[in-house]
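If your schedule permits, I should be very grateful for your opinion on a structural question. What I wish to show you is a protein chain and, alongside it, a tokenised description of its three-dimensional fold. Would you kindly read the sequence against the tokens and tell me how you understand this chain to fold? Here, with my thanks, is the record as I have it:

===
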Amino acid sequence: MRNNAKVIIFSLFLIPIIFLNCSDLFIFTKRFTFNLISPFVTSLDFITKKSFALANRLAYPKWLVIENQKLNQKIDDLETTLVYFKEIEDENARLYDLLDFQKTLLGETVPAQVIGKDSSKWRKTLILNKGKKDDVDKNMPVVTSNGLVGMIIEVGNSLSRMILVNDPSFKVSALLQTSRIEGIFQGQGSGKAVIRYVDAKKSIYPQDIVITSGLGGLFPKGLILGGVESTKKTRDSLFQKIYITPSVRFSSLEEVLILKKTSDS
């Protein structure tokens, strides 16, 4: 009797499946059959999900699930704390580095933080959190331990704007450390800089360090500007351009020093 019942139930599910695989001539039959078995399939899916849920509850008691959730929350909190302490560690390392460099400078300095950047493609400026109340004034050089960053061009009471050395309008008298060739260092707006009108007969050493010459009085002598990347002669072959990669990574600037006085003042 039980075997006959099994055969009947099996047939009820098998026959509709056979009809579902017939040709397009049985479209009506397919639709009818599909509508007929849909409630059974839906019910079966519902029962299966409930069975799994019940099995999970039986396998994992409620107190264990709650404890697992608490542990996951603690892990998330610890990961957040680790990120926070890593940020503090990195900031301390930068500040120690800046403090050591500050000791090598002559004259007074004002430590400042970068709090804003110019979004323009060609204009390269930064906003600093120090201004007139901190004795910051226009034309003061801005440096890091890696070299010259730029110069203050606007000053408010508690903020100031500085121009970066890779801005096209920035110029400073420069000196190649090995060859002792002098020229005007000028930003190009693309992260690079150039020294123009250098005698084509002069020998330029690859990777030679470029520093401020001290001429003009605005910048002290010896601040690193960058390194020689390449050279290119002009069309008339009388001069050559020296392309320079600035020593400062402008995209990662966070803390700087403003030079209130130079060694020449």
About this structure: The longest strand covers residues 224-233. The chain has two domains: 2-59, 110-265. The longest helix spans residues 62-102.
